What we know:
Layout: H1 4-20, E1 28-31, H2 35-51, E2 56-59, H3 62-70, E3 86-89, E4 93-94, E5 100-101, H4 108-116, E6 121-126, E7 141-145, H5 150-159, E8 163-166, E9 183-188, H6 195-203, E10 208-211, E11 213-214, E12 220-224, E13 229-233
Parallel strand pairs: 1-2, 1-3, 3-6, 6-12
Antiparallel strand pairs: 4-5, 5-11, 7-9, 7-10, 8-9, 12-13
Helix pairs in contact: 1-2
Amino acid sequence: xxxxxxxxxxxxxxxxxxxxxxxxxxxxxxxxxxxxxxxxxxxxxxxxxxxxxxxxxxxxxxxxxxxxxxxxxxxxxxxxxxxxxxxxxxxxxxxxxxxxxxxxxxxxxxxxxxxxxxxxxxxxxxxxxxxxxxxxxxxxxxxxxxxxxxxxxxxxxxxxxxxxxxxxxxxxxxxxxxxxxxxxxxxxxxxxxxxxxxxxxxxxxxxxxxxxxxxxxxxxxxxxxxxxxxxxxx
Length: 234
């Protein structure tokens, strides 16, 4: 008998399969991060084998880079292809208006750059990531910060009503370091009624490289439940 966890894993795979249907021969594909996106990268690898699909991927993190190599996806860069046909990525929270919080994998800056360079952005996630308002369930907003500016950014976040915590590494002393050599602050703002406004205020703090607010970037989302895949479209 399948457990709930097994059913969710199957649903994640189904959401990934829906997402990769948007990828066509000759596409430049942005590759996001996370466990659900890993299924999409695997599915793209299968299409390359079975259909002789010719695509090139632009990974948004070292994890995505490793998976792309593992599944035989040819890689390229934004310098060579500054316009991406479609990006497939995950989310930590997603609302019916397709507002997202991302960055629990510490790849938010590169993920947002890849998303901004894409003609079309697809998000895949399981139903636990779906909320009515960002910040539900004590969800924090990851913020990538220059190490030199850490104390300043923390104080400015508190002025904005947030509770900032520097993300520490597991199994080692010291903070998490991003692929860009920066640190991550996880800020709890409570329920966020106007994420677009708050995103601008946080981004304007000197030393903030990028925020985990992704608003206005998503075109379609596939949400995996135990029994089906639900589609949310802009």
